[in-house]
Design goal:
Helix content is 30%, strand content 34%. By secondary structure, it is α+β, with helices and mostly antiparallel strands. The protein has a single domain, classed as Alpha-D-Glucose-1,6-Bisphosphate, Chain A, domain 4. Strands 1, 2, 3, 4, 5, 6, 7, 8, 9 and 10 form a 10-stranded mixed beta sheet that branches. Helix 3 packs across helix 5.
């Protein structure tokens, strides 16, 4: 327990000052290189971000879904549990919500065959709808927050499994852009260090493999909400 609390404190102070720069770099279209094309319909890209311990990744998919319902699914933190078998979230909890800001935490039940401990993270998302006056163009970003500022939630998370690892670095975002013909361009950007003893090469490989499922799960949820 003491180790987890210390890790939370260290991670928040070490990276908070770089949060805006990290997100700016992730949202910049320059510098991305192709990792995979058409991985279940998702194009995957990779980028080195100054000041970050691991590279950032981006996934893009053209989807046939209502942009508002798609964004609603992304913002509906509580509904994220159970959306994906490949990314098995055990908990997805809203801490607080004010205006276009939501603080939350999530707990990932890492499959036992990976021999890795469970992971959890505390983050703040901000979101904007109809960006630039464009109907259906929505943007969301999230940044790491200090888990020790929410002791009751931290206690709940650590009580699930005392060996679970609090991720020390976690930034990213979603963008929903309407396209001609009723299609939508869905973009997912992420830069996350899961922490623990996993080698960086294994972390990067895991991110590349699971990233497409993030987009697929929200596409499927938007269609479910539309009754398709």
């Amino acid at each position: 327990m003491r180790f987890v609390l210390l890790l939370a404190l260290l991670s928040s102070t070490a990276y908070a000052a770089d949060g805006a720069a990290i997100l700016k770099s992730l949202n910049d279209d320059a510098g991305w290189t192709v990792v995979a094309k058409d991985a279940n319909g998702v194009d995957v890209y990779k980028k080195d971000v100054p000041g970050a311990p691991v590279p950032g990744f981006k996934g893009i998919k053209i989807v046939d879904a209502d942009p508002d319902l798609l964004f609603d699914a992304i913002l509906d933190v509580r509904s994220h549990v159970g959306l994906s078998d490949d990314i098995p979230l055990k908990k997805s909890v809203v801490i607080s919500k004010s205006g276009n800001t939501i603080d939350f935490w999530q707990y990932l039940d890492v499959p036992g065959w990976t021999l890795a401990n469970d992971r959890y993270w505390f983050a703040r998302m901000t979101f904007n709808r109809d960006v630039g006056g464009v109907d259906g163009h929505h943007v969301q970003t999230w940044s790491l927050i200090d888990a020790t500022q929410h002791p009751s939630h931290l206690a709940t998370a650590t009580a699930i499994d005392e060996d679970a690892v609090l991720t020390p670095f976690n930034y990213g975002g979603w963008e929903v852009e309407p396209m001609p013909g009723g299609k939508v361009k869905l973009t997912f950007r992420t830069l996350s260090d899961p922490g623990g003893s996993l080698p960086k090469s294994a972390q990067n490989l895991a991110t590349q493999k699971t990233l497409p499922d993030n987009l697929l799960q929200f596409e499927a949820e938007a269609k479910r909400r539309a009754g398709k």
